[in-house]
């Protein structure tokens, strides 16, 4: 009994040992299925979805529960099971593949119910027949199973088949969790996993810059897994507006979800639902007249554009779907039309198909389907002409999941062929043995299935990676409406994982139908993209995709859409008006080209002209009493210095350079010191000449022409030394002043050292003050020699100008600073020129009768200044 107990545990799904006088193995319970069967040397199992509704029996367990009943036969999906049969027949006829070996099959309908699917899997493992021998010996009834199409079912079935090392090759289960070889070691699939499906969807969303996305999935292990995976992918570049798991049978949750969809600002919504759940969802959304949404369909329902027929197209037209790669199977259509009803219970699916196709019923029907109980239908004769029907069952123009069934059967066949081709003594098993095709064990087939790699009749490579997954190639489809009103699925692109990086997704934009007015790519964002010149500012408590666009501050720019920060412009640049580009700052300096520069230059030149004119008058009238009485030599030198003062103003106009910066200050300092020195000496001469009281007490002999020249030279030399030290230690240089105006670069001359510049100005101011004081003291000299009055007045003008200059200079911006300085130079120069020389020129030019010694000596001396 120990041995019997061990075997009974292994086959606990369908077998139970019964201790009796005649010990034998009996089936614990025998299930009845809707199925297809054909005997062969090697049997393959198949689990397909044909019916889409189940009715549960009474589970009170007061009596043995009845079988589950299946309803809603789908003739279109029935095509998939027929393709398995077609592939097996094609292989059996092929002498190059599995020669002298006939493949058989046992196919069951899972009725899209997990319990029925599990019972089918258990039956395929243990077989259907009673075994009466004591040892309960016997091979598993099948060596591999093709199916299940539902990921949730495949998860459960794989855990069972994995215990026996039996391969399960699915054509439609896409859950990425099934790639876990530790948990599902015997699972394979000819459809790419959802890891790739999610990646394709994310790439499409990213391609169109949809950053605000809703996600809906089925409320099961498969749906929740894909929902979490897609959330992670989308969050790499966008945000999730909402993500909900849906049970279509829960009316309350469905109503709540419809409300969320209607209220959400997300235009793009991804839907992971099984075919029938998707059909219910589409009906519900269309019933509530929800439009203006771009739906992204998973591969389980994207191949069924019939969902969007008639008035539903307003809501679901333009749906973009990711679908398994479409394939072509030559000769399939002819095979599909060869089907004929069977009354064999093990092939009852053919009879059920016939009844569903022609809307009739056979008189005798022992299958578990309520189709046979429907009233008001004609009796099937079995001679109905199926070749004249045109339905989705016989449509071979868009084979996707069906094509994957075809590849799955061939993958198993090639694995069996490789197993049968093993050379004795070079086998992969213990002691280098080979497996026997007649007694092959599932785990032996599993070894070869992992290494399958072949090119099928359609030129497509079929292989599995280390996770048992197929090569990832998807078609991108778009639901469109033809001229006759029928909705069809148009391939608008592909996703090929084996393509070059960045080129995996290829879309034909011209072939895409967008169900929006105008017919253009929709946008799906929480906040509109921030244009260049602004930056994104997150909203508190909201996702990162919801933000405000804040304009960049002055001097900062953003040159790209959705910039997170504004970039500060380099020091010599400033932001343009749109804040999207740094432009060179305007360089400001007093130019000869602007009106102010021209005016000041013209004024300076006019001053030069006047000075030279006065000099010419004085030279011409040098022998007249007026000129002689006012120290002609100092007057000539004063006029030359004033000419230099006017000329130095021109050095302040134009683009500053190291030469002009040094020249302008040196020339200014020396010319004005020369000018003030001449005035000071003239004042001293007048004072000394008229302070002599006794005849022969001539103080002028101590301050003659040589002393006067020496004094002027000495005062000017001191200023020259100040300028020389200044230029050697820290000379004036041109600089770009960025501190006072943000949008402009003020090109100016930096004085280098403030001490040097202060000494230069201070020395001029000292001489000016001394001249003013001395002239003021001798202002009441006789009218005949009234030079002191004019000097006093001129120095008063000079000091007033330069005292006023200081605050004006400090407060003037940019080029106006230089303009104020030039104005001060010109104003003080003109003041000296007119105050000292205008009266004398008037006498020389207009009153020659007064320009005589007699006239000068006879003038009234009583007037005071």
Which terms summarize this structure?
865 residues; alpha/beta; Rossmann fold; six-stranded mixed sheet; 29 strands; 41% helix; rod-shaped; disordered C terminus
Structure notes:
This protein has 865 residues and is of the alpha/beta class. It has four domains: 2-191 and 338-393 and 400-450, Response regulator (Rossmann fold), CATH 3.40.50.2300; 194-298 and 300-328 and 471-511, 3-Layer(aba) Sandwich (Rossmann fold); 534-584, no CATH class; 595-857, Up-down Bundle (Rhopdopsin 7-helix transmembrane proteins), CATH 1.20.1070. It is built from 22 helices and 29 strands. Strands 12-11-13-14-15-18-19-20 form an eight-stranded mixed β-sheet, sandwiched between helices. It has a six-stranded mixed β-sheet with strand order 3-7-4-8-9-10, with helices on both faces. Mean pLDDT is 84; it is low at 1-22, 130-135, 366-374 and 860-865.
Instruction: Specify the CATH homologous superfamily of the largest domain.
Output: Response regulator
Q: Could you list the spans in which at least 5 consecutive residues all have pLDDT below 50?
A: 1-22, 130-135, 366-374, 860-865
Helix content: 40-55%
Domain module tally:
4
CATH topology of the largest domain, by name, is Rossmann fold
Mean pLDDT: 84
Biggest sheet strand order reads 12-11-13-14-15-18-19-20
Largest sheet: 8 strands, mixed
Structural class: alpha/beta
Beta content: 15-25%
Q: Would you identify the CATH architecture of the largest domain?
A: 3-Layer(aba) Sandwich
Gross morphology is: rod-shaped
What is the CATH class name of the largest domain? Answer: Alpha Beta
**Topology, number of strands:** 29
Task: For the record, give the distance between the C-alpha atoms at the N and C termini, rounded to a whole number.
Answer: 149 Å
């Amino acid at each position: 009994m120990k041995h019997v107990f061990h075997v009974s545990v292994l086959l606990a799904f369908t077998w139970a040992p019964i201790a009796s006088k005649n010990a034998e193995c009996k089936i614990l319970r025998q299930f009845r299925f809707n199925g297809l069967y054909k005997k062969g040397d090697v049997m393959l199992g198949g689990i397909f979805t044909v019916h889409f509704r189940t009715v549960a029996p009474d589970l009170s367990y007061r009596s043995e529960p009845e079988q589950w009943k299946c309803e809603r036969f789908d003739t279109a999906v029935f095509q998939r099971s027929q393709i398995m049969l077609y592939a097996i027949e094609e292989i059996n006829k092929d002498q190059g593949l599995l020669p002298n070996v006939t493949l058989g099959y046992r196919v069951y309908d899972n009725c899209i119910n997990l319990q029925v699917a599990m019972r089918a899997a258990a039956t395929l493992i243990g077989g259907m027949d009673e075994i009466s021998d004591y040892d309960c010996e016997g091979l598993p009834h099948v060596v591999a199973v093709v199916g299940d199409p539902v990921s949730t079912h495949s998860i459960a079935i794989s855990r069972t088949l994995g215990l026996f090392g039996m391969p399960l090759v699915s054509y439609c289960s896409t859950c990425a969790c099934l790639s876990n070889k530790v948990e599902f070691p015997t699972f394979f699939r000819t459809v790419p996993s959802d890891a790739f499906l999610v990646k394709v969807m994310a790439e499409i969303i990213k391609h169109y810059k949809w950053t605000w996305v809703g996600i809906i999935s089925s409320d099961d292990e498969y749906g929740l897994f894909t929902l979490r995976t897609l959330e992670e992918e989308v969050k790499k570049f966008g945000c999730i507006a909402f993500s909900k798991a849906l049970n279509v049978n829960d009316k309350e949750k469905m109503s709540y979800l419809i409300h969320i969809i209607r209220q959400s600002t997300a235009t793009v919504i991804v839907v992971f639902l099984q075919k029938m759940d998707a059909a219910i969802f589409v009906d519900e959304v269309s019933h509530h007249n929800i439009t203006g949404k771009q739906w992204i369909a998973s591969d389980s329902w994207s191949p069924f554009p019939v969902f969007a027929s008639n008035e539903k197209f307003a809501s679901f037209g333009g749906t973009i779907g990711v679908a398994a790669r479409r394939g072509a199977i030559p000769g399939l259509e002819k095979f599909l039309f060869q089907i004929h009803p069977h009354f064999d219970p093990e092939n009852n699916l053919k009879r059920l198909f016939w009844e569903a196709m022609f809307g009739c019923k056979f008189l005798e029907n022992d299958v578990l389907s309520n189709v046979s109980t429907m009233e008001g239908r004609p009796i099937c004769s079995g001679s109905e002409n199926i070749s004249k029907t045109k339905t989705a069952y016989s449509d071979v123009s868009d084979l996707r999941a069906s094509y994957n069934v075809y590849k799955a059967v061939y993958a198993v066949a090639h694995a069996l062929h490789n197993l049968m081709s093993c050379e004795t003594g070079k086998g992969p098993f213990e002691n280098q043995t080979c497996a026997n095709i007649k007694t092959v064990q599932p785990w032996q087939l599993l070894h070869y299935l992992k290494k399958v790699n072949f090119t099928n009749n359609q030129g497509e490579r079929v292989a599995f990676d280390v996770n048992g997954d197929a090569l990832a190639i998807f078609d991108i489809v778009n639901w469109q409406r033809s001229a006759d009103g029928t909705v069809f699925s148009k391939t608008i692109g592909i996703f090929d994982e084996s393509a070059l990086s960045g080129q995996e997704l290829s879309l034909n934009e011209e072939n895409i139908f967008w169900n929006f007015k105008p017919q253009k790519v929709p946008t799906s964002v929480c906040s509109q993209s921030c244009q260049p010149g602004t930056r994104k500012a997150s909203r508190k408590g909201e996702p990162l995709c919801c933000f405000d666009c804040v304009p960049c501050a002055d001097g900062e720019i953003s040159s790209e859409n959705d910039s997170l920060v504004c970039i500060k412009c380099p020091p010599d640049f400033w932001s343009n008006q749109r804040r999207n580009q740094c432009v060179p700052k305007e360089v400001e300096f007093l130019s000869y080209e602007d009106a102010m520069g021209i005016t000041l230059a013209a004024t300076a030149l006019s001053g030069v002209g006047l000075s030279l004119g006065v000099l010419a008058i004085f030279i011409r009238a040098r022998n007249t009493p007026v000129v002689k009485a006012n120290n002609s030599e100092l007057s000539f030198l004063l006029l030359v210095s004033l000419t230099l003062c006017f000329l130095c103003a021109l050095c302040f106009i134009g683009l500053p350079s190291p030469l002009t910066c040094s020249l302008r200050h040196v020339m200014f300092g020396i010319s004005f010191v020369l000018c003030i020195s001449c005035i000071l000496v003239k004042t001293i001469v007048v004072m000394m000449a008229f302070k002599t009281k006794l005849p022969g007490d001539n103080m002028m002999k101590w301050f003659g022409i040589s002393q006067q020249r020496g004094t002027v030279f000495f005062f000017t030399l001191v200023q020259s030394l100040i300028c020389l030290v200044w230029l050697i230690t820290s000379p004036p240089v041109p600089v770009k002043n960025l501190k006072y105006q943000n949008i402009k670069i003020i090109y100016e001359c930096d004085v280098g050292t403030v001490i040097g510049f202060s000494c230069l100005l201070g020395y001029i101011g000292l001489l000016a003050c001394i001249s003013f004081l001395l002239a003021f003291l001798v202002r009441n000299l006789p009218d005949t020699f009234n030079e002191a009055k004019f000097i006093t007045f001129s120095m008063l003008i000079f000091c007033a100008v330069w005292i006023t200059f200081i605050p004006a200079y400090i407060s003037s911006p940019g080029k106006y600073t230089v303009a104020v300085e030039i104005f001060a130079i010109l104003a003080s120069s003109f003041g000296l020129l007119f105050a000292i020389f205008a009266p004398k020129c008037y006498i020389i030019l207009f009153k020659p009768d007064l320009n005589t010694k007699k006239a000068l000596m006879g003038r009234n001396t009583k007037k005071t200044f």
